Amino acid sequence: MNVLAVESRDVRGMLELLIEQLDGRLGGNPWFRLWMEHTGRYVDLGEADRVLAAGLDLPRVTTTAGALLFCAQTYASLVLDAISRCSGVEGANNRVSLFDWYRLCHPEEYERSVERLSALLLSQNGDLRELNDLDFSALLGAVFQQIFPPSLRHLLGEYYTPEWLIDDACGLLDFESLPTNLVLLDPAAGSGGFALRLLRRLREKRTFANATVILSDVSPIAVRFAELNLAFFNKSAKESGEAPAKSKVVLADTICDSVSEEPTLFDATSAKLRFLGSSFSEAIESDEFERAIDTCGFVSDEERSAFAILFRDFLSGQFFFKRSVSANLICGNPPWISWDGVIPEYRRTLARQWADSSLITNKGWRAKVAAGKHDLSTLFVHRSAERHAAPNAVMVFALPISVFQGRHSAAGFRLFRAGPIRRYAVTTILDLAKSDVFTDALNRAALGVFRVDQEPTYPIPYGRLTGQPLVDCRQYEWGTARPIDATAEGSPIVLAEDHEEGLFESIAPSEYRARGGVNTGGANAILWVECLGRDGKHVRIVNSGKSKGTSIRRIEGVVESECVAPLLVGRDIRRWRATPSRHILFLYDKADPKKAIPQSRASEKYPLAINYLSQFEEDLRSRKEYHRWGGQGPFYEVYRIGPYTFADVKVVWQHTGYRGRMNVAVISHAGGHVVVPDQKVILLPFADEDEAHYVCAYLASSIVEKVLAKYLGLDASTHILDYIALRRFDPNNSLHRRLSELSKKAHAMALEGADLSALEREVDSTANQLFFGVAKVAA
Asked: Please, are residues 432 and 408 in contact by the beta-carbon 8 Å criterion?
């Protein structure tokens, strides 16, 4: 284990001392109070403490939410002070930080801690003064990764961008088009490594008369890392005869203005911020400022003076991005957090800006379901183009590949509209999805280069990384990319080979609409049941008790058999075969399929089931999904349900875990009961078995695989029908009939475990003829 990691035994005692010192003054520590008020806007402090404590095995932790994280970040700040001392930049940045409480209030303990850490650093890394700026930046990134455990970094969305990725980003830029007076901004800077390495690589290619670097982050400890990184960068520049970069490191939110009385997007004209019990506008009033300072208890005049400097600087930073910084080059690796992963308080603060932007294109039920899937990183790109960019600025961001190729959640992003007037365009994409770019993260990555004030035009260069990246050797396959459907704004941007013109010409919407399976709204542990035995019209059941992230008491009981339906989950589906493996407690009537049976009627018809469910009523009513949909229905209601759920015949496929060809099958009622597909199953409802088998065979074909390979990640959702040109079944079309026959035969052979390769080749050939229109109708 690394000697600097908070889990290290050598460090744990230091962290325990910080906790003890903080506990002694917890209620009256203005540094912690201001840190908590700021950081709590973005982070679930209680959850962060729990995640951190789980890996520390401390004998005790403070009960105040955020205190453990604050101490861990204070420790990280001590490490940075030691690095600063060992690298010869001590004193280069005298800016007061939120973590200086320890230096000011416990100077002797502070000095001993920094000396001890300095010794550890020297023993592990040698003389830091001999490093160049690139190696120093890489060291800081490694230190950040080493100090905080992966579980905490995952919660906070903090990942270090590898050096090779930044180098490849630089290789995508037309550096000659950049102005000699360069303004470089990273709106989510972290340690500042992305921007500074990019600037170093640019300086190797050409000379800039002036370079201004602006680094911003909402994390106070990230800002400390960035300040030290920038100080060493400028030290190295001076030593090599270069002009140091003008710089500004800001603790600020670059995507969300303060609450405003004005209804316009991203406006902060009337912004007011509340900290330390007082409200502040951009013009900080002295009386209000002093009143806030006076509410804090200080141990010395020196501490009061330092905190006043910090607080004024802190408030100024909160308003810094109210106006454009006119950056010519904007770069970074913004947080990859889905909208439903943002803490509720910040989500509400962002809601108006998000909803009013062009990033949201879904309407009605789809907006409710898909809203949580939007990635916060797209708002950084959108906001950078809308607010922070100079005319014709260049932007380069590390982003999830899904923002370029996801079907619905990123469709608004791909409109490339920044506000009501300004446009921007993606000019190059590097697809890194098949490589492990970030340690401890499973996200499929990409690099996107954008030009502000330019209309999108296609095709664009598209590079795909082959194999795993090596520091000195990476191979890209280059081609061009275009929207998969040129007639639809916001459609996925995909690789287009020279020989695929016919494929793109044949892409069209299908004449069917797919549906999602039933969503229990987080109640799988209750409504998913195991059948222990049947007795006529009754069945003994026990609830599963467990689902992802949930554990609940298991209770046995007897209910009416009509209330228990076979449940088909995603893993039950294979090619040409689907067999339900579970059951679900399901109080719905085919005559009124969209609503659960009212409790008054259910109590009369199914009293045993209602009595059983009543034992979980509080849990069922507390579901977020229950309240999202009004919280007025029966407490046992489920979601994404309709007439299609009760169809006699269904074509079903796995929603998640897509790996190429579709796992798709036809399923009908089992033992007289409707088969209920789970939310991880996508379905098409049918009354006619011949039609269902025709659709099943088409979806199982290689041409569908080829179209989906253009943009699909791991989720084969309802949108897969959008581009595969699946036509309505025509019993007079011989190709339709043949696909239906082949599917029926494939299902029978799959049950026997027979070899299906020859049959599937005929499926592929027949579906190809339909897709490319070789034979539209044959008698």
From this structure: no
